[in-house]
Amino acid sequence: MRLPFTRRAAAGETSPGVHPQPLWSYRPQSDREAGDAVVSNLLLHWFPSKVYKPSLAWNYSAWLGTISGALFFLLVLSGLPLMFLYVPSVERAYQSVKDIEYVVTFGWWIRAVHRIGAHLMVVAVVLHLARVFFTGAYKNGVGQGQQREWNWVIGVVMLLLTLFLSFTGYLLPWDQLAFWAVTVGTNIASAVPGIGPRIRELLIGGRAIEQATLIRFYVLHIIVLPGALGGLFAYHMWRIRKDGGLARADAAALAPDAKDTGPVPTKTYTLLGVARGTSPAVTARSPEAPDQTVNAVPDLTRRALIVILGTFALVSILASAIPSPLEEPANALITPNPAKAPWYFLWLQEIVTDTTIRLGSLTINGAFLGGVILPGLLVGLLTVWPWLDKSAVSTAGLWFPRSRRRQNLLFILAMLFILAFTFVGMFMRGPYWNLYWPWETWPGIPGRI
Amino acid sequence: MSDAKQPQNTDRRDFLLKLGAGAGFVAITAQAGASLRSLVPNVTYDAPTTVKVGPPGEFPDGLKFLPDQRLFVFRNGKTFHAISAVCTHLGCTVRAEALSRAEEQTIDGQPLRLTHRFMCPCHGSRYGGDGTNVSGPAPKPLAWYRLSVSPDDGQLVADLADEVDHSFRLTLP
Amino acid sequence: MEKRTNSPFPRIDRPVLAAIGIVLVGATVFFAWSDRQHDYKYYQYAFRGMVAEKLGAERAATVPSGLQQVWVPGLRRADRCVTCHQAVSWKGFETAEEPHRTHPGDLLKSHPPERFGCSACHGGQGWAIDTAAAHGEVAHWEEPLLGKPLGEAYSLTDNKAALMQMNCNICHRYERATKGAEMINLAKDLVQEKGCRACHVINGRGGTIGPDLTWVGDKAPEQYDYSRLSGQTTAFAWHVAHFKDPRALVQDTVMPNFHLSTKQAQALAMLMLSWRKAPFDAAFLPGVPRTDPQTADERKAEEDMKTGPGAWFVQTGCFVCHSIAALKVRSPAQIGPDLSTAVEDTQKRFGVTVDQFLKNPTGTMSVVLSRQIVLTPEQKETAIQKLREAFAEYQRLVAEGKNPLAPPVEAAPK
Fold this sequence. Notes:
The complex is a heterotrimer of chains A (449), B (173) and C (414). With 449 residues, chain A is an all-alpha fold. Chain A has helices at residues 31-39, 58-61, 64-85, 93-102, 107-134, 148-171, 176-189, 196-204, 211-242, 247-254, 267-272, 296-321, 346-354, 366-388, 405-427, and strands at 50-52, 293-295, 357-359, 362-364. Chain A has a single domain, classed as Cytochrome Bc1 Complex, Chain C (Up-down Bundle). Chain B has 2 domains: 2-37; 50-171, Rieske Iron-sulfur Protein. Chain B is 20% helix and 39% strand. In chain B, strands 1, 2, 3, 4, 9, 10 and 11 form a 7-stranded antiparallel beta sheet that branches. With 414 residues, chain C is mainly alpha-helical. Chain C has 3 domains: 39-143, no CATH class; 162-284, Cytochrome Bc1 Complex, Chain D, domain 2 (Orthogonal Bundle), CATH 1.10.760.10; 296-411, no CATH class. Chain C has a two-stranded antiparallel sheet. In chain C, strands 3-4 form a two-stranded antiparallel sheet. Chain C is elongated, with a radius of gyration of 32 Å. Classes of the chains: A mainly alpha (449), B alpha+beta (173), C mainly alpha (414). Chains in contact: A-B, A-C, B-C.
């Protein structure tokens, strides 16, 4: 397929040293045209012109990073009309969300896309992190100047930003769900010894959740956090290029049966500044071997398009099918029963329920142990894991290699533990945080009339 | 090239590619359009155009300014008329200034007692006592609006959507 | 020809892309279609037909279409009820089926919808545009439509639509009687007659034995104890049951059972739920003082009691349950016996002297004297002395040939 505005070389232009530069070509006729299609296109320029074939396999990365990116993009897009329609004031926020739900054409759908997209993004980012962990993809391979461990650290920060983005968005409808989820969430922050209350005060702009909180969370949600996440996302992608693509590529180069292909031309590397030093990674066993690579256009772009459009379609359908809840207007005088944090923090809420410790007269608030120490420890461990992982370089880019079995098992256990607590918090906690089986009905919640 | 040997195959692949990419493009354009459509307001939060402004007896002889409706209501005994305070140039609220001496004039074949003149603070437009633009950038006279009496409770009703000409008077029995 | 690396991927990629593109188009069509599914389109179509039939095609053309709302900034209400209930202010549809019926009565003259909206009186969710959500029959909406179906669910005695009067009383709470709100008026009369203020503060006046009732309608539904209540667990049902038999719901309450009829209990429950704060401009309040006024006689009787010979019994709180007729103290509740004859009476009832009884009370008085009215030994001495004085006065009046136990004429109950 050739777009009408692209230019093909006229016969006379193919003189030596001059080659035609089509603006864009979806189905390039030659490898050089495929490379040009990447270099000359703003959207595609973050791709290399050639990609190591197994990196594109569905069953290696499951394209979870692309899905996360697509969701982030979708959230920015659906957030734009919502910014026009939503009023960040305690008097009118709830009312404006009711208007979006009821009288704005497609308003309910845009809000649902934003909400479903946010939930799915948390899921996708966590799964992406799990994939990178299981495949040891934070390990450096054969290339020079690789710093995959730092890209992992950035990924962890991006996960935290994603969670915080979702959390700040939670308050904006200013309903009971929002108000009390944020009350519980910010009180966990105040459990930090010494400076805790001051952190909370800074976060919510006072001692009570009020207009100051709403505008803080609003600005964080629409400018600060998406800006930071977008910046880190760009850096994350750039680092992947600097590190020579996915770890899968290094794994193939290091595989014992890798064919010795002899020196291969890698000048596009230096042109695009992908590797450091004057002599880029020209090795005899470069993964860039011609028979191992495919053109980014169209093989990478086609799959990326499938993933992005598929993500959009999924969110679109879910948004039409699942109505977004909006509870009663926020009321500081009435705590709903039960009051629950957002689902991705429910495991923490479940843990803080059980971790208040009493030793004689000394009482340690569960919010400190379960809400600060434990998640802090988990995040800290995640961050430094690339330096703790001493397994062989050859295990990077492979699913569940034997030598990394122990740490993968540990990770799975931690995930199962979090999932189990999330499940209990979501489906088994009823009024007064009492335990119920998922099939048991809760006692009816009394109404006014 | 292998593609060249299988023209039919190429056609089918091309078609599928066009179908997929094209459908995606169409759908995303439609969704972007839907997002834009959401900005067109379906309900109005504007003040209603027909408003009860109080019992006629409570209006003083001469002029009363109603800031909520941006309206001057004039009373001369049992006769009422209303002139908009919205400048016809760019919509600022004009100020009324009492004349040192009221004048009797015939406007559109009806007698009218002129007690005020109007000046716009934004660009200096000036209007005469019946709202005629006298000087400044104002392109046309101030609007006159219909007054009536509510059959329910006898209050004066101003209809800000119904412009009338300068011969309009509401005369109470 | 330049070199071209062929795609090594299975050909399935292209059909997958095509399929996903088509699914995305389908998803887009689906949400656009579901956005248009609203009942109001049918109702507006039907109403236009009704107008055309009754008043001619010309009038039918003036029936507005699309979403309609009444925006009342002073009440922060945007009521879209008129999107379906288009006939509200049209004359001639008095007997039509809802939602195409003219608003009954002439209430709209004093409460024009453009100033009061709909939901301020009727309840329901004004924001919504679909029936169930608008009528408040959905989760997370606490103000259901106060109409007949709800009244039937609560088996209201006479007028099944009376629940709406609760909302009348949010604004009209300081009036003694409000035209058209019979149930609320009945309840207000009961509050005077039964002397609720002896124990409860209402609008800033009253006793402190029971809870302050001024804003009791704002009490959260979860704050009530439903463990002894059968049937609906709502604040309204709780109040009805509690008025009928307080002790059945709250075991150790000192609130007396007034043996109210079902209607009276329902009226009082409505009054309780109507005592709530509502955000509105002062302009929405009818022109009455922000308290319910007392008559001059009532004020005088109260003043006499407070400063007369029986003042000690009033200050101590005995008068809540006991009259001391000899000293012109009249209890609003009259739950306990008249204390004028207590010196004699304790011998008869309990077989002990008044001194012994006060030091060692039994029955209800043991609860009252240990929890509500706690007296020091010195105060008990005073009490005994005062009771003797009362009895002396009683004997003097009997000797004069009067019957002091008959209530004084000017303070006789209605």
